[in-house]
Design brief:
The protein is mostly helical. The chain has one domain. 63% of the residues lie in helices and 0% in strands. The longest helix is centred in the middle third of the chain and has 14 residues. The mean pLDDT is 92.
């Protein structure tokens, strides 16, 4: 196992981490490791590729006639 030393941790951040560790019944070290693992496990998203996939997904939906929807709402057939 490697050792990492954190310096100059702001007091409010330290207090929040300590409180969170107590709530989760973990040591401060375990809490920090759990948070780092959770944060780093989040997959990175390519915004351009995601937008392209979203556009392709929404293109498969039928077109909505907004005038018809408005008329249905006015008639109480929402």
């Amino acid at each position: 196992m490697l050792t990492l030393t954190l310096k100059n941790i702001p007091a409010p951040l330290h207090a929040m981490l300590k409180e969170s560790a107590e709530k989760n019944r973990r040591s401060l070290n375990s809490e920090i490791l759990a948070r780092l693992e959770r944060e780093l496990a989040v997959p990175t998203v390519d915004p351009k590729a995601h937008a392209k996939e979203l556009k392709a997904f929404t293109a498969r939906f039928p077109r909505v006639e907004h005038a018809r929807v408005g008329r249905y709402k006015r008639e109480g057939r929402a």
